[in-house]
Amino acid sequence: MDDLNALLEPGMLVSHPDRPDWGVGQVQSNIGGRITVNFREEGKVVIDGSRVTLLPVFGE
C-alpha cells in the first residue's frame, strides 16, 4: 500500500486520480490496503491501494 493511502481514515474525503467523473468520495474503511470509498457519482467502490494512490480533498 502506498504511504499516502496508509494515512487514509474513515470519514476523510478523497478523489480518484484516474476517475475525476466519480467526484469526491468519503473513505468508509481502510483495511490491509483495500480502501472502501463511497463516491458521489459512482457509489461504493473498493480500491486496491497498491495500484491506485487516492488524493485527499480538503475544504470540500
Overview of this protein structure:
It is a single chain. The protein has 60 residues and is mainly beta. Helix content is 7%, strand content 40%. It contains 1 helix and 5 strands; from the N terminus they run αβββββ. Strands 4-3-2-1-5 form a 5-stranded antiparallel sheet. The protein is globular, with a radius of gyration of 10 Å. The model has no long low-confidence stretch (mean pLDDT 94).
Brief account:
The chain has one helix and five strands, in the order H-E-E-E-E-E. It is mainly beta and 60 residues long.
Question: Layout of SSEs?
Answer:
Elements: H1 3-6, E1 13-15, E2 25-31, E3 34-39, E4 43-48, E5 55-56
Antiparallel strand pairs: 1-2, 1-5, 2-3, 3-4
Tell me about the largest β-sheet: 5 strands, antiparallel
Mean pLDDT: 94
Helix/strand order: HEEEEE
Helical residues, percent: under 10%
Spatial strand arrangement across the major sheet:
4-3-2-1-5
Percentage beta strand: 35-45%
- Helix run count: 1
Oligomer: single chain
Roughly how many Å is the radius of gyration?
10 Å
Number of strands: 5
Uncertain residue segments:
none
> How far apart, in Å, are the first and last alpha carbons?
25 Å
Overall 3D shape: globular
Which structural category fits the helices and strands? Answer: mainly beta
Tag the structure with descriptive keywords.
60 residues, mainly beta, five-stranded antiparallel β-sheet, 7% helix, globular
